[in-house]
Write a structure and sequence with these properties.
Number of strands: 4
Strand order of the largest sheet: 1-3-2-4
Radius of gyration: 16 Å
Distance between the termini: 37 Å
Shape: globular
Number of helices: 4
Oligomer: single chain
């Protein structure tokens, strides 16, 4: 895994209480199938969000090279190459077919968190739990306005 293929994403409302290099070193714990690591909360339950609150996308580690190989997003550039893109199939599995008029999926309400949840639900072998020590963000205080968790 080359370092140019790796990315850490930290939302603006998340913050570090330790050296960010320690987070970067977590890439060393990835196995051959891991493409994404983020904190997870399997005990959470919110069917109105397709249970996307079971993960937190505030701090993520992404193996971009692996996602390129898997063709994360659909593109006319490589659509005829044979390997289907990862995202459309996982979205359909979780949300059903998109609206014919708009192409949008109904009730995919949490933005990037819902996107990553669809990927993780459809392809769990790509996911690695990132220790809760890295989930230091303000969204845990009031879970999207639903009250303290």
């Amino acid at each position: 895994m080359s370092e140019g293929a790796l990315s850490s994403l930290v939302h603006s409302h998340a913050f570090f209480t330790t050296d960010p290099l320690l987070l970067w070193r977590q890439f060393g714990t990835f196995n051959a199938t891991t493409a994404i690591a983020l904190p997870s909360h399997p005990e959470m339950f919110a069917p109105e969000w397709y249970d996307a609150n079971k993960i937190c996308s505030c701090v993520m580690l992404l193996d971009l090279e692996r996602f390129r190989t898997l063709r994360l997003m659909d593109s006319t550039h490589y659509r005829t190459a044979g390997l289907p893109a990862l995202a459309p199939a996982t979205f359909r599995a979780l949300f059903g077919e998109p609206d014919a008029a708009t192409g949008h999926f109904a009730d995919a309400a949490l933005g990037d968190q819902t996107f990553w949840w669809a990927i993780i639900q459809g392809r769990p072998e790509l996911f690695k739990h990132l220790h809760y020590d890295w989930e230091v963000s303000s969204c845990l205080v009031e879970m999207y306005g639903t009250g303290p968790i």
